[in-house]
Amino acid sequence: xxxxxxxxxxxxxxxxxxxxxxxCGGWALAMGIRRGDRQxxxxxxxxxxxxxxxxxxxxxxxxxxxxxxxxKGQGAETTAVPYELGxxxxxxxxxxxxxxAVYRFWRKLDNLARFMENVxxxxxxxxxxxxxIVKGPAGRHVEWDAVVHNEIxxxxxxxxxxPGAGVDHAGTITFRDAPGGRTELTVxxxxxxxxxxxxxxFAALWGKEPGMQIEKDLRRLKRILENGDFMPRxxxxxxxxxxxxxxxxxxxxPAW
Length: 256
Prior knowledge:
Strand order of the largest sheet: 1-2-8-7-6-5-4-3
Structural class: alpha+beta
Number of domains: 2
Order of helices and strands: EHHHEHHEEEEEEHHH
CATH class of the largest domain: Alpha Beta
Number of strands: 8
CATH topology of the largest domain: Alpha-D-Glucose-1,6-Bisphosphate, Chain A, domain 4
Radius of gyration: 24 Å
Shape: elongated
Largest sheet: 8 strands, antiparallel
């Protein structure tokens, strides 16, 4: 299993703020060097940071408190979490089952609540839309609707929250063949917590750090699938679907 931490260095301040930071930072840097005493050193350090802020367009303070004044940039109109925003976690796990079986289990979205600790329930509204209820801090619950916007059977499944959801969230699951008839499952999750990075830090104090939580969830998924805990009900559902299809093929509607 692999966890990849992404440190965001994208532009998060406006051009006006960059110009202001550059002007004030240059002045503070020059004055600090001229003074040459302790206060001058502190002033020079502050000036250097403001110059860096101007050159990169990135404010670490804004990142910490979850503020962004710059335009959202690429993907802002079509994705739940625009490019280089929010927190991203990548995980890889190998499951000792064929790819098609792992995909079928995951595609039945109500199964997610069986192994994701903080997911209370996922209710499928239609073929591509689902309603999520997730456990939040202090016993609260967070709800949102999500839509599957990209799907390649047995290979890829991608979803994102519908605009207006309380939590901006998107995810992609990739299914690949692994040696020995196993499946390599790659999970890429990205979300923008309401309180920014600070909110994620507080979540980590309560054992809800995204990478660790997803790792635990995937280990639980691996155990459920490999131990066959899901098979009786899952196979029964598959048999019912197969019998229904045989009884009423898509091309032949029921008589009534």
